[in-house]
């Protein structure tokens, strides 16, 4: 059984492309290629993390920080580990 992964993220919307960008304090920094308008950045974050961890988008859940740059996200049963966590 694969354990869920819980990530503390600092999200930077409006970047040229979506990518992991190192650390920001105790959080992992993620640049998103979507603006912070009408939930587009959250949708892109879910799509990006689902692709990175090899799971369906419904397995990526924003636990805390829906309207903040500081977010806590749960990835349910990731198929792959894109980061040395």
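Q: What amino acid sequence fits the structure above?
A:
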């Amino acid at each position: 059984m694969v354990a869920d992964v819980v990530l503390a993220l600092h999200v930077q919307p409006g970047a040229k492309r979506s990518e992991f960008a190192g650390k920001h304090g105790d959080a992992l920094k993620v640049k998103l290629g979507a603006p912070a308008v009408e939930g587009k950045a959250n949708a892109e974050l879910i799509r990006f993390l689902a692709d990175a961890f090899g799971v369906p988008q419904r397995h990526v859940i924003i636990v805390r920080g829906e309207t903040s740059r500081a977010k806590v996200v749960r990835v349910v049963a990731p198929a792959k580990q894109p980061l040395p966590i």
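Q: And what stands out in the fold?
A: DSSP finds one helix and five strands in the chain.
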